[in-house]
Design goal:
Length: about 600
């Protein structure tokens, strides 16, 4: 025997309200959308037909308020009420053909159920625009039952009215302020007029059109209208926008440059409308990932919304729109370089992380605005252009750690080195070299910088011999060699020097101190065979007065303590995290020095 599925309506409503829709307020969106769709259906029969949606709030002295949504659209016949209104998942708008999908906003046949989130009963009174059908009253209830009545005795104009009486726990949605707020939020850009009436007033809620639908006398007027619209939409003082248009998906709108810095981890959230109905103000993935400095407002005609209506299906159309918008933005920025260079400068100075990303990805962008990218250097922040005007060779380090190590010394030696340790910096420099093979670039680290230091004369070496030997013994357990050179600034007694590989080994060694046995084994494998290798060297500055004094004193104990302290201080200066043993050294060294000073005092 064949059986039919039973639908437990309460369960479905629960599913929708807790898992699909973002909250009970979406009933306003669903009702607006049904009204507008019904008008579109009627306009298919009569393209000049003027539709409107009217919303009324009735607040009786006794009892709960009722909201009435009325449209003068296509209406429903009795048969259609059974088939579409009362059958979950049935929709008169389901489009087998993609082009049909562009006619209506709805398509799933579940939207009306959202009304059960605020009311126990939905009453629909409808008159079909098709000739020869009487008006119908339909009453659907949460328990899954419904009644249908012909109401021949009254004559009503074609269209549909939906009545919802507030559920006691949802009264907050049944005030004039809340309804106007929600209607404006979802329906501000809908192409049919929406009126709101209470006992004492009537207003048109959506009385303006988006800037891309208006015509302008001058370019300036157009620009002001777009900027004013963006400021209002995002509540941000935006100064620049990029018009967007894509035939695929029928998407039109504008991308606004954020007036504050956005990092590459920021997710761009866009305000997206579907045929004038707000889908969401948090849609992601509409622009390429690098475009984090932009926020869009767009209206799409035929991208496919997901059932919750709060996003789009990730399909080939969305992919095409994203690609196309990426190209539009890129071309716009490239044009700015010639038409409004000061604006491009403003955008780059605020959003250089994103611009770097774009320049690293794209040769043309690198050629056009690569020079404007700011870089941190040992002699202050400057753009690539300023750097190149002053120096023939682009000298750079490729890690922030390396930069910290060398910054002070390089600056004192008047060496201008770029910190290319941030995301994509080094790539930008290397790409620049590929594009301009004649360009001289030099990759530095602390070791290569140290090669620029001045060597000691033989007699000076002799003078430093004892100090170096003691230092060697003290630092050998820390895998740190020693050396002595002359370098700037004279005030710096020592410099801790390691290159990228040595830095890595040092970090692996330190990680072993805190790692579990599994990680410990892995790290052992990483450092295997390097047991005898030094991870760094401590370079004394011969010209430094303290070092000069250390070379003259005889007290071994004092030299040892001083070397330990100089070693730890050099690590701290270079922002190297201290290992447990180095921490102990710091503590003992400090106490030791205090002790020595106290002994002296006594003596
Ligand atoms: N105001 C209205 N005028 C005419 N028909 C309506 C109206 N409201 C609902 N309907 C009919 O009821 C059907 C079901 O409506 P419902 O809102 O549940 O789903 P939908 O709009 O088709 O799709 P979605 O779930 O995507 O919103 C519609 O397809 C339409 O045929």
């Amino acid at each position: 025997m064949e059986h039919h599925f039973q639908v437990h309506l309460k369960g479905i409503i629960d599913l929708l309200s807790h898992h699909l829709y973002s909250g009970p307020h979406v009933f306003v969106r669903e009702l607006l959308q049904n009204g507008v769709d019904a008008i579109s259906a009627r306009q298919k029969l009569d393209p000049k037909y003027q539709g409107k949606v009217e919303i009324e709030l009735v607040q009786p002295e006794q009892g709960f308020p009722t909201i009435i949504f009325q449209d003068n659209g296509i209406g429903l016949t009795e048969e259609e009420v059974h088939r579409f209104l009362a059958t979950i998942g049935q929709s008169s708008k389901r489009a087998e053909l993609a082009e049909q999908r562009t006619d209506f906003i709805g398509q799933f046949g579940i939207g009306l159920l959202s009304c059960f989130m605020v009311a126990d009963e939905i009453v629909v009174v409808t008159q079909s625009a098709k000739a020869g059908h009487p008006p119908i009253e339909w009453r659907g209830r949460q328990d899954g039952t419904y009644e249908i009545k012909k109401i021949d005795q009254v004559k009503i104009e074609p269209g549909t009215r939906v009545y919802l009486r507030a559920r006691p726990d949802r009264l907050e949605y049944f005030t004039p302020e809340k309804i106007i707020e929600l209607v404006r939020y979802f329906g501000e850009l809908l192409p049919v007029p929406i009126y709101f009436h209470t006992d004492d007033r009537s207003i048109q809620v959506n009385d303006r059109r988006p800037p891309w639908e208006r015509t302008y006398l001058t370019k300036e007027d157009e620009k002001s209208a777009y900027l004013a619209f963006g400021r209002e939409m995002f509540n941000l003082e935006v100064r620049h926008y990029i018009p967007l248009y894509s035939e695929v998906g029928g998407v039109v709108g504008a991308a606004y440059v954020l007036p504050h810095s956005a990092t590459l981890h920021t997710r761009s959230r866009h305000r997206v409308y579907l045929k004038g109905m707000l889908l969401s103000e948090k849609i992601e993935g509409l622009l390429p990932e690098w475009a984090v400095f932009l926020r869009c407002v767009v209206d799409a005609q035929s991208l496919r919304p997901v059932a919750s209506r709060e996003g789009f299906y990730e399909d080939e159309n969305l992919e095409a729109v994203r690609h196309y918008f990426g190209e539009t933005i890129r071309h716009h920025l490239l044009d700015l370089a010639t038409t409004q260079p000061e604006m491009l400068n403003y955008i780059i100075s605020l959003h250089h992380a994103a611009m770097r990303e774009l320049a690293a990805e794209d040769d043309e962008c690198l050629r056009v605005f690569g020079e404007w990218l700011p870089f941190q250097t040992t002699l202050g922040t400057m753009t690539l252009k300023q750097y190149r005007q002053k120096y023939d060779v682009i000298r750079y380090v490729s890690s922030v750690d390396a930069f910290r190590q060398i910054a002070q010394v390089a600056a004192a030696e008047d060496l201008c080195v770029i910190n290319a340790g941030y995301y994509r910096d080094a790539e930008v420099i290397r790409k620049l070299k590929e594009m301009e093979p004649g360009l001289k670039i030099e990759h530095l680290d602390a070791t290569t910088i140290a090669q620029h230091f001045e060597e000691l004369a033989l007699a000076e070496r002799d003078q430093a011999f004892d100090l170096l030997r003691t230092a060697e013994i003290v630092l050998q357990p820390f895998r740190c060699g020693v050396d002595i050179k002359k370098f700037q600034p004279v005030s710096l007694p020592v410099l801790y020097i390691n290159n990228d590989e040595e830095q890595f080994l040092r970090q692996a060694e330190q990680s072993k101190e805190v790692a579990s046995s599994l990680w410990g084994d892995i790290l052992d494998a990483v450092t295997a065979g390097k047991e005898e290798v030094s991870y760094a060297s401590l370079c004394f500055n011969y010209n430094n007065p303290l070092v000069q004094r250390l070379m003259t004193i005889q007290d071994r104990q004092l030299i040892r303590r001083s070397v330990e302290m100089l070693y730890v201080q050099a690590l701290l200066m270079g922002h190297h995290p201290l290992s447990n043993r180095e921490m102990t050294l710091l503590n003992q060294g400090l106490l030791g020095l205090i002790n020595i000073a106290l002994e002296r005092e006594k003596g």
